[in-house]
């Protein structure tokens, strides 16, 4: 991912970059969404939008904008679309469809999604509704914008693995394996945020995230290798995940807490 001289992250995604392997799936998803949901616009984000998808490993991540929020009937339609696409196209690990309004996108709940859409997405259908979002720069301001609540977020994941409870995403209860991958991705991406306090770096590639974090924070290198391994090969063993997080989170969150304290004291 290219960063301009002024630190601005350049969005290099383009509909023309979608690989032939994933083109049929993308077209079919767009067709079913436009037919069933009557959207304002549809975006493809993530590795597929940059032409970097990996067969059987990458997911397809679609963001749909509508005039109003979804009701139960519409949510049911979305789940049916997801189920049918996952059944017909095994070339992706998962089909992810997020539906929201422009107003919701601009709320604090979706601030990371704003960054992801602005830096790594392409318009598949309809009106460009993200053109009014100011481009983002790779610096400590972006790191704090995206991960100021990382302490609570990772501790919430930890409590999920430690306790016997269920957790849902997009109206479906997900297995520990799903949340294992999500947790490790959050660690890798927020770890890159730590590096952004020092230098202008930004990449959605998790392997590169791990490499950059390990270089800048060598004391975390062994743990970061495990984080990447658990992201690539997620497990359902809550006990084992909890055991790893027990050792890793205190030192990792200490670094984040120090960065946030230093930032407050320098104001």
Descriptive report:
The chain has a 4-stranded mixed β-sheet. Strand 2, helix 2 (72-88) and strand 3 form a beta-alpha-beta unit. It contains 10 helices and 6 strands, in the order αββαβααβααββαααα. The longest helix has 28 residues, at 238-265. Helix 5 runs antiparallel to helix 7 (176-196) and helix 7 (176-196) crosses helix 8. It has 2 domains: 15-126, 2-Layer Sandwich (Beta Polymerase, domain 2), CATH 3.30.460.10; 140-265, Four Helix Bundle (Hemerythrin (Met), subunit A) (Up-down Bundle), CATH 1.20.120. It has 267 residues and is α+β, with helices and mostly antiparallel strands. Helices cover 53% and strands 10% of the residues. It is globular, with a radius of gyration of 19 Å. The mean pLDDT is 95.
Strand order of the largest sheet: 3-2-1-4
What is the CATH top level name of the largest domain? Mainly Alpha
Overall geometry comes to: globular
Which value, in Å, is the CA radius of gyration?
Answer: 19 Å
The average pLDDT value, as a whole number, equals 95
* Terminal CA distance: 31 Å
What is the element string, with H for helices and E for strands?
HEEHEHHEHHEEHHHH
Q: What is the structural class?
A: alpha+beta
Strand content: 5-15%
């Amino acid at each position: 991912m290219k960063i301009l001289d002024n630190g601005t992250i350049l969005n290099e995604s383009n509909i023309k970059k979608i690989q032939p392997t994933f083109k049929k799936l993308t077209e079919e998803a767009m067709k079913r969404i436009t037919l069933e949901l009557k959207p304002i616009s549809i975006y493809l984000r993530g590795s597929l939008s940059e032409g970097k998808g990996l067969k059987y490993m990458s997911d397809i991540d679609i963001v749909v904008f509508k005039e109003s929020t979804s009701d139960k009937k519409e949510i049911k339609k979305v789940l049916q679309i997801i189920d049918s696409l996952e059944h017909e196209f095994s070339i992706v690990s998962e089909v992810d469809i997020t539906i929201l309004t422009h107003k919701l996108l601009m709320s604090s709940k979706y601030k990371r999604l704003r960054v992801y859409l602005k830096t790594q997405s392409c318009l598949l259908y309809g009106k460009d509704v993200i053109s009014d979002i100011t481009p983002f720069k790779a610096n400590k301001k972006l790191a704090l914008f995206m991960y100021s609540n990382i302490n609570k977020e990772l501790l919430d994941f930890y409590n999920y693995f430690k306790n016997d409870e269920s957790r849902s995403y997009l109206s479906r209860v997900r297995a520990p394996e799903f949340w294992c991958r999500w947790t490790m991705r959050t660690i890798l991406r927020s770890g890159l945020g730590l590096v952004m306090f020092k230098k202008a770096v930004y990449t959605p590639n998790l392997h590169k995230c791990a490499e950059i974090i390990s270089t800048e924070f060598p004391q975390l290198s062994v743990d970061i290798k495990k984080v990447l391994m658990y992201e690539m090969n997620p497990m359902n063993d809550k006990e084992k995940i909890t055991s790893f997080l027990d050792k890793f989170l205190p030192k990792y969150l200490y670094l984040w807490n120090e960065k946030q304290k230093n930032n407050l004291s320098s104001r």
